[in-house]
Task: inverse folding
């Protein structure tokens, strides 16, 4: 699994195939298929390995629900930052359901039930929070990096400036001065703070 994760980190998820993995490992493909049935199982096992590696990083037990949720959210965010391909595996209508994946959901739902949510509402709140994290993770650059991105960004800025669309939209002018590569973590924290404020309103307001 370590080799498959290394390949995905280096080349992107589309590059990971059973054949390439066998070649890199120096094994006949049929021996690899004895351990992993298909690519779907391989991706699930890769996700399990990455998530399980971070399992011990838990928030302090005495922290309140907001701090614990923030910790868990940033921990998931850090996984997508380190392994952008993981988003494709988890953000699916058929996600893997191995022990580590389920434990990741358990940790969030447990905090929400401790905060007063009933089990069904806790799961809905988890989906809201997870949807925010995964939605922001779509902005993370995936390897291999697009060599034309900065050219596109520069050309787009010039076009918007020449057509007057920047002047008409102060928010767009401000956005054009930011760099997603440098500012993405602060954007994530900005939204996370407000997301948690909304989720953890007094229980009677839900």
Result:
């Amino acid at each position: 699994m370590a080799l498959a994760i290394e390949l995905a980190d280096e080349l992107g998820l589309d590059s990971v195939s059973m054949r390439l993995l066998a070649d890199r490992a120096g094994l006949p493909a049929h021996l690899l298929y004895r351990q992993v049935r298909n690519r779907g199982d391989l991706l699930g096992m890769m996700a399990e390995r990455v998530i399980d590696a971070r399992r011990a990083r838990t928030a302090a037990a005495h922290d309140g629900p907001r701090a614990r949720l923030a910790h868990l959210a940033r921990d998931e965010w850090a996984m997508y930052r380190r392994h952008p391909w993981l988003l494709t595996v988890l953000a699916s209508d058929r996600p893997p359901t191995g022990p580590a994946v389920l434990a990741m959901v358990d940790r969030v739902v447990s905090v929400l039930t401790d905060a007063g949510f009933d089990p069904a509402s806790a799961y809905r709140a988890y989906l809201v929070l997870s949807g925010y994290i995964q939605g922001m993770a779509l902005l993370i650059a995936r390897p291999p990096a697009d060599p034309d991105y900065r050219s596109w960004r520069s050309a787009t800025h010039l076009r918007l400036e020449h057509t007057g669309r920047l002047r008409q939209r102060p928010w767009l002018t401000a956005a054009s001065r930011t760099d997603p590569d440098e500012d993405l973590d602060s954007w994530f924290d900005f939204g996370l703070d407000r997301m948690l404020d909304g989720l953890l309103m007094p229980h009677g307001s839900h």
In short: The radius of gyration is 20 Å.
